[in-house]
Amino acid sequence: MSPQNTKIALFIFQFLAHVSLIAAIFLFSFFDWGISFFVYFLTGCLGVSVTFHRFLAHKSWKPPQWWVYIGSVLGFWGIVGSPIAWANNHVAHHKYVDTEKDPHSPLFMPWWKVQWLAMFTSYGSFRFALSNLNKFQMFLHKYYFVIHFLILVGLLVIFGLHITMVCYLVPAAILWNASSLINTINHNVGYRNFETKDSSTNNIGTGYLIWGEGWHNNHHARPGNYSFKVKWWEFDLSSLIIKLIRIKS
User: What is the average pLDDT score of the chain?
Assistant: First the structure.
């Protein structure tokens, strides 16, 4: 699939996810929302934050092999791009931060594009060499939308639309918006512990609500550190989970 078709396919999946999110406001019970947010924890915290971001993109910790598979699948389920594509795009963000080449900079594109349409400015091909990759992650990348199409159809046929929304589409929309908030807010609003050369900020809201990812200025100052916490009250759940995985391994 060409880079442009990849972006269009990701947009279509996210469009379906966001339509489901709007419908969920009127249809979901508290139990449904609880399940969706739990799936979001699995995909967003364990998948994207712990695995895609802190392992694949920054190599800030070395997980056991069993976690590489689990974390890759959990992040994959969130429909934010393959492990390789997501990490590649994030490496581009750090390399070109606050420039026109930054794939999701609120300084060079409107906030609504950063929030919802960043897939059209993201890199569709490999521009940076990523280490720590294995054949499984290459498989997830090569057949990303084929697998997601099969997941979508399989869930609809076996469990119906409601379960598909609860366990797949709505959590994906939540994850997309949460991840994008880091880009729209944490280069505009917040405080700074470090005088970095970019506009990154820490934000209490995104820091606590998005698994520690909102301590963004700390991260840009020390991208090789798996913990984004600097001050004692800057809670970073993802770093605690990494510590737990390392203990268990």
Answer: 93
